[in-house]
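A quick aside before the break. I want you to see a complete sequence-to-structure record at least once, exactly as it would be stored in a machine-readable document. Don't worry about memorizing anything.
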Amino acid sequence: MTDISLDDVDELFELREILECRAAVLAAQRGTASVFASLHRELRDAPTLLTAADPTRHAYYALVARLDQAIDSSISNSYLVQATRTLRVHLVRIRRLAAEVDDRLIAAAAEHAAIAEAIADGKPRLAEAATTLHLHRSLAHIKATHPALPKEPHG
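That is the input. The structure line, written in tokens, reads:
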């Protein structure tokens, strides 16, 4: 696996914003409210999953993956789902790069809960805004924890 640069992170987050915000909008329009209401409740309680008994945060990340899967299943757009899944392969590298600080994971769980709630309520603009806020905060965290990432010249 190759190293990742700050430019890579910026570019991946640009793409992430386009894909994930559109997916959140479509999920709010097409998704099953009860599925997302249930995920909202679980995500709201997600800080209880961040314990010393699970130092790899497997249970937390499995819950986040369930939210991703529910969004993918509800948007009825195979091309968007495929593009998002391709992007997620690269996001694994970013997750390894980002410091797994409990405070950030707790905040991210609240952000994910807000996304699920907006989708459950059938509010596409709110789902988009919640996704945008989550991505902004995630990128800011990565940059704050790794300010010395190399920048690569493009051209």
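Two observations worth writing down. The two ends are 23 Å apart (CA to CA). Helices lie at 6-30, 33-44, 58-74, 78-97, 102-120, 124-145. We'll return to this after the break.
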